[in-house]
Amino acid sequence: MEYQKITKQPLEQHATKPNLEDYQTIREAFSWDAVSRELDWFDSEHINIAHIAVDAHLQTERRDKKALVWESTKGEVEEYSFADLARLSNKFANVLVNETGIQKGDRVFFFLERVPEIFIGILGTLKAGGVIGPLFSAFGPEAVNDRLADSRARVLVTSPALIKKITDILPGLPNLEKIIMVNRKQAPDFSGALAYEEAMGRASESFEIVKTGKEDYAIMHYTSGTTGKPKGAVHVHGAVVGHYATAKYVLDLHPEDTYWCTADPGWVTGTSYGMFGPWSNGITQVVYEGGFSARRWYKFIEQWKVTVWYTAPTAIRMLMKAGDDLPGQFNLDSLRYMCSVGEPLNPEAVVWGQQVFGMPFHDNWWQTETGAIMIANYPIQDIKPGSMGRPFPGITPGILDDAFNELPPGREGNLAVRPGWPSMFRTYWEKEDLYQSRFKNGWYITGDRAKKDEEGYFWFVSRADDVINTAGHLVGPFEVESVLIEHPAVAEAGVIGKPDKIAMEVVKAFVSLKEGHEPTNELQHDIQKFVMKRLSSAAAPREIEFIDSLPKTRSGKIMRRVLKAKELGLPLGDTSTLEDD
Ligand code: AMP
């Protein structure tokens, strides 16, 4: 089906004048240096993300403005002004320095629910010069272990409910010196941990923020690739220039906005746009502790009068499934602008936004490695439903052939970006060769395939690798295969992404069993549970197909390409390197 362009009103007809008034003019005039001068640097070389996000507002009229309004699943509400966040994050920085002895560059990881303490803790760690590593609270022990071991994290901030999942891995983490337990109202039940509440109670409210260099490491987010364990993409303090500029021009944040980002703080969207982007712009953001629920989400928008909403395609598709009538039961008049990221946003969803909310969803594209939005739809630009939009003003993407030469418009190829923007990752933690391998011919190769049209709009085609994108979570097939073969009944496993209407892809595993095991339903469930417990529910195969043997290359590598083609009923392609038998 052909979707018509959604034409935007001329500038003067917008109720809120867009920050990006004219794409072409801003694109031509844009310079990262100029935009970075809007921020409060210590000097030309030194900047600290937490200072920009919070303390820089203290000398302004935003000092007592609400920065964070948090609502729990039970409906309890807590509100924090910029001054509150400054004070509390100072305390946390003191806790880290005085009670754990962390030094600049030490890794402090967070395995915590979506509670105010994760925001306070992250800001405090950055103030103290530590490197933050947020972990998705739905992770299982294996996923947490891989990340804590690889990063050699010194401190873990967690909760009584979550520590239960990972007690078995702790003895195997010699670098992890301290656990800080955020008890909230739960009883402390883990001896040897530092109780957050008590430590915060004795900590001073004043702290001199570490004057980090713009290239000092600040943030680590682990991301999955085709092979090997997840890798830590490392971002620097100077990245905040990118968070700030993109939140201003793409999310179009204005001082009077109430902004809601639905991403979990464990993922890059949850930090770049659930903390640093909005707060560096001095914006009030609301946070809901719980996960997806169509009713609850609409109620949340109504209750807090959300004006700008940043969410994800799987959630939008689930809202569509919940029905067109449901939004009408709530007063959603406050909404003025909606954005989406993380997976391809189908054109139906863009148009559905227009029909049901009176405005389209604005898709944008970026990834853990890019640290900030690279390609986007803007309030002032016409939307071509199904397109990711046009490059952010300071960004030059291109479509390259397999020899890494740029292709003309209309041709499908590798999506690449010219390096050099502030929020770009600086390395994969202790995997410099892998990092370098992502650069070819003066381009950063994103791992996605896309097309560009004559008007400069980019269209996502697929991943170039085997990585599975399920509900916006990247899952490395290798990680899942490694866990599968640890199951006592499994001999070999191959994992692919199977297309799905809601989650875009779900994990499907092809499994061959060891002698003496029968392919029963019980065994299938047992294997699913096994992966879910160790990695996460997103990584657990939704479907398992038992087969006698897996297609392999002569060197023994499982050919996922063949499994995928088989699943989709496509021609098997070149199978000349398959096993002979
Ligand atoms: P992550 O690094 O986990 O944030 O995932 C980034 C990947 O998600 C990208 O490389 C794409 O494959 C996919 N992705 C993110 N945003 C979009 C989008 N707007 N359209 C299509 N795919 C997207």
| Shape-level CATH architecture of the largest domain | 3-Layer(aba) Sandwich
CATH superfamily of the largest domain, by name, is ANL, N-terminal domain
Percent of residues in beta strands: 15-25%
* CATH fold node name of the largest domain: Rossmann fold
Mean pLDDT: 95
Strand line-up in the sheet with most strands: 2-1-11-10-12-13-14-15-16
What form results from the Cα inertia axes? globular
Low-confidence segments, ≥5 residues, pLDDT <50? 576-581
Chain-wise SSE layout:
Elements: H1 23-29, H2 32-36, H3 49-53, E1 66-71, E2 77-81, H4 82-100, E3 107-111, H5 116-127, E4 131-135, H6 141-151, E5 155-158, H7 160-166, E6 178-181, E7 194-195, H8 196-202, E8 217-223, E9 231-236, H9 240-249, E10 258-261, H10 268-280, E11 284-288, H11 294-304, E12 308-311, H12 313-322, E13 337-340, H13 347-357, E14 361-365, E15 375-376, E16 390-391, E17 397-400, E18 413-417, E19 427-428, H14 432-436, E20 439-440, E21 443-452, E22 458-463, E23 468-470, E24 473-475, H15 477-484, E25 490-500, E26 504-513, H16 521-534, E27 543-546, H17 560-568
Parallel strand pairs: 1-11, 3-4, 3-5, 5-6, 6-7, 10-11, 10-12, 12-13, 13-14, 26-27
Antiparallel strand pairs: 1-2, 8-9, 9-19, 14-15, 15-16, 17-18, 18-21, 20-21, 21-22, 23-24, 25-26
Helix pairs in contact: 4-5, 4-8, 9-10
Residues 223, 268, 341-345, 363-365, 367-368, 388, 446-448, 460, 463, 469, 474 line the site of adenosine monophosphate.
